[in-house]
Amino acid sequence: MSRPSTPAEAYELLLEGNRRFVESTCEHPNQDAAHRAALVPGQKPFAVLLGCSDSRLAAEIIFDQGLGDLFVVRTAGHVAGPEVLGSIEYGVGPLGAPLVVVLGHDSCGAVTAARQATVDGANPQGYIGDLVEKVTPSVLSARAEGVEEVDDIVDVHVERTTDLLLSRSAVLAERVREGKCAIAGLSYRLGDGTVRQVASRGPLT
């Protein structure tokens, strides 16, 4: 299969892979020795994926992709600091990926911790506290809209992360504006393995 050249093609390829995963008909593409050897000179992933670090959210597995297909960046609560933004810019710039995905999930521990911190005023110690602080604006924004349930807050956090990427990365914003790249904000269900779109920026169709 040729590499997708447009955001819409890349997005559909990801969704097709997720459907195979959900239906237990995975093809496990691009995982053989010949493909591994072919990638040695360089990579050309068709999508950049910023996902939560949750161990149940392994991108290549839930989208049924293989080596060289996805440029994956993962942090707890898909928090996006300078290193994450730089990685995404590398994926859409030098590597030319036409799609960026922000992937959240239900029962997110980072969102749960941030929500609890706004209730009892106690922030976790160490760098976990820093992470919670970065998720807290999404919790407060959700609360202002009357949203209190963790899984609904996750949707707000995914959408806010999508907008944050565009507002903080001039490289990504320019490529989206030119139609060369799009951003899809997705929420993954741990129980059935499906993904649901909660945000989109740029030409996904």
UniProtKB/TrEMBL annotation:
SUPFAM superfamilies: beta-carbonic anhydrase, cab (SSF53056). Keywords: Lyase, Zinc. Pfam families: Pro_CA (PF00484). It catalyses: hydrogencarbonate + H(+) = CO2 + H2O. It is an enzyme of class 4 (lyase). It comes from the Bacteria. SMART domains: Pro_CA (SM00947). Its EC number is 4.2.1.1. Catalyzes the reversible hydration of carbon dioxide to form bicarbonate. This is carbonic anhydrase. It comes from Saccharopolyspora griseoalba.
